[in-house]
Amino acid sequence: MMAARLPAILRTTAARLSALYLILFAICAIVLVFYMTSLSARMLAAQTMETINEEVANLGGAYQRGGLQRLVRVIGQRARQPGANLYLIADANGRILAGNVESLQPGVLETEGWTTVPFTYERYGEGGDDPAQPSVDLPESRVDPRTAHDAIALVLRLPNQMIMLVGRDLGEPQRLRSVVQRSLMIALGMMGLGAALIWMLVGRRALIRIDNVSEASRRIMGGDLNGRLPVTGAGDEFDRLSANLNTMLARIASLNEGLRQVSDNIAHDLKTPLTRLRNRAEAAISGDAKPEEYRAALEQTIAESDQLIKTFNAILMISRLEAGYSAEQTATVDLTTAVRDVVELYEPAAEEVGVELRASVEDGLSIDGNRELISQALSNVIDNAIKYASCDGRKAQVEVELRRADDGISLAVTDNGPGIPDAADRERVTERFVRLEKSRSQPGSGLGLSLAGAVMKFHGGRLELLPADPGLTVVMHFPVKTGG
Amino acid sequence: MDMLAAATDRADIDAMKVLIIEDDREAADYLRKALGESGHTAHVAADGDTGFSMADGGDYDVLIVDRMLPRRDGLSVISELRARGNATPALILSALGEVDDRVTGLRAGGDDYLTKPYAFSELLARIEVLNRRGGGRDAETFYRMGDLELDRLSHTVKRAGKEIVLQPREFRLLEYLMRHAGQVVTRTMLLENVWDYHFDPQTNVIDVHVSRLRGKIEKGFDGPVLHTVRGAGYMLKAG
């Protein structure tokens, strides 16, 4: 499991960024350390050489005052001091006569002047030989690597062909360098650790959350359409992304639910009349019917097909509206006139069925929209109101009112019928095909209010059903038109 | 076809020569036969190219053009004809019935637009009106039919010399009926031309308007003038 995850971890942006920072820091650190060590090494070397020069000047003074003997004595004294410089006096053949150097790297004594390249040497008392007995022959060949030290030195030839070497041990600069190198290693190690830590804190956390989102979306894709992406409540960009995706999923789910409901309802509301139609045709041809009976059957068939076509058109229209009608079809609509026209269209039909249709319409109201759609929506609502107006022997009334409201224009159609007492039912009737059980006997597709709702949504408004006591008020609310 | 017979049982029938441009063979044959039974002559073209050359060459009174055709679509057939100066009235048949589809169809040069599926009576009434319009009986200022008179300028209606007071909408309704006197006018045509609505009201609101108008122009006068044509619509006819 971990092994399988590792490449994924390394492929994360956080891991890549951490690695990049690590490399950059390491390069900077290395450059800095090298610069500092070389600088300090040069400074130390200069200091050492100066010390040696001073020493040589002192010794030169001793030699001039007391000759070789005094020089050897002075060297003997100095060589015994702790932390002393290197001193060596040898004869022309390279045999060591005095000093604290037991042996040294071959070739050093042959070069007159500075030997700045570090060479190895041994002091008395450090080598394996008896310190009391200075070895006098070929000291240069017997440097023991275990006890050897590095040093630089100045070799001078005395007037009597003797050789004098004054040098200084390099132990201190070398210790400094090793300290610097160690701290460089420690620093690099800590940086690596830091990068890992940063990755743990930032990268891994992000990775886990993204993995959670991927996991959740896989579940949703796998069919769990009610699944949602995790929102931790931290309010960060991940939460915002998840919340937005969840809103999108909810929208898709509601569309999907709508679609499912529609197909169910189409199955019911179209199949039922289709079955009736088919049965009637079948019954008509099976028996020995009279011509008039054939004719009646066919006429009913045509009437039923027409109703089917109407239902079908309404479904198509709602779908188109919900998919967003083309904006080309909107213009300024004189709502006052449009409402008066529809009321006028319905007024005789209402009177015919004993419904008093009244209108109180405010003048000069207009919106941006589609007259045809608004008229159709209002006609559906009025048609509905007329159908359900009469109740309990009251004089059936339908009142249409168009007026300026607080936040727009309100077009209300109120009937004094039984209304819809249950609030949940009131919500439901604007859904497609929903016809409350009591109204199943009435003609109609059950799409009238859904279509009106879709038209209102298209105009950026809303359709509301309110209890009117007695009866029902259907409010078509249009958003305000500025400057109208 | 009793229903069709009822719709076409008229004395002043003008036989039309109709071109049907429709790729659905069965629909085209049905139309041709039904038009024949109504006393008209009909030819069929099964694709846009054939339809165009037949319409361009033949002397047709009315074209019935399906919107979606092989080779060349119906709208381009009509606009091409119009571009060549052919003004034969054209009725567009289409499965697309939304307002903007209708607008595109009429903009392309179509004279009327009918959504599939349609009732034959509706189609017949519409092409007869189109044919009459092709004859140039449009927008007169004074109509007379028998003893019924309508004056658009003074906005008055008289029957047998007696003035009848009509509501503005009733006046427009009668005006439309008089302009197409002797022809069947369907409810949809009335809704489109008198009210300018292209949707279908659930209830038969138009019938009530017509019967109100009928009451005003017939009650107390001699004989019916506004007849109901069963399964089709209405017709204004003297006697």
Task: Write out key terms for the chains shown.
heterodimer, A: 484 residues, Beta-Lactamase, Helix Hairpins, Heat Shock Protein 90, 3 domains, 6-stranded antiparallel β-sheet, 9 helices, B: alpha/beta, Rossmann fold, 4-stranded antiparallel β-sheet, 41% helix, disordered N terminus
Structural account:
- The complex is a heterodimer of chains A (484) and B (239).
- By secondary structure, chain A is an alpha+beta fold.
- Chain A has 3 domains: 14-176, Beta-Lactamase (2-Layer Sandwich); 237-322, Orthogonal Bundle (Helix Hairpins); 327-479, Heat Shock Protein 90 (2-Layer Sandwich), CATH 3.30.565.10.
- Helices cover 54% and strands 18% of the residues of chain A.
- Chain A has helices spanning 2-10, 13-80, 171-221, 237-286, 291-322, 335-352, 371-388, 423-428, 448-458; strands at 86-90, 96-99, 101-104, 113-123, 149-157, 163-169, 331-334, 356-361, 366-369, 397-405, 408-415, 462-467, 472-479.
- In chain A, the strands form 3 sheets. In chain A, strands 2-1-6-5-4-3 form a 6-stranded antiparallel sheet.
- In chain A, a hairpin with a 5-residue loop joins strand 5 and strand 6.
- In chain A, helix 5 (291-322) packs parallel to helix 9 (448-458) and helix 6 (335-352) packs parallel to helix 7.
- Mean pLDDT of chain A is 78; it is low at 127-141 and 436-443.
- With 239 residues, chain B is an alpha/beta fold.
- Chain B folds into 2 domains: 2-134, Response regulator (Rossmann fold), CATH 3.40.50.2300; 142-236, Winged helix-like DNA-binding domain superfamily/Winged helix DNA-binding domain (Arc Repressor Mutant, subunit A, Orthogonal Bundle), CATH 1.10.10.10.
- Chain B contains 9 helices and 12 strands.
- In chain B, the strands form 3 sheets. A 5-stranded parallel sheet of chain B has the order 2-1-3-4-5, sandwiched between helices. A 4-stranded antiparallel sheet of chain B has the order 6-7-8-9, with helices on one face. In chain B, strands 10-12-11 form a 3-stranded antiparallel sheet.
- The radius of gyration of chain B is 19 Å and the shape is elongated.
- The model of chain B is unreliable at 1-12 (pLDDT under 50).
- Chains A and B meet through helix 5, helix 6 and helix 7 of A and helix 9 of B.
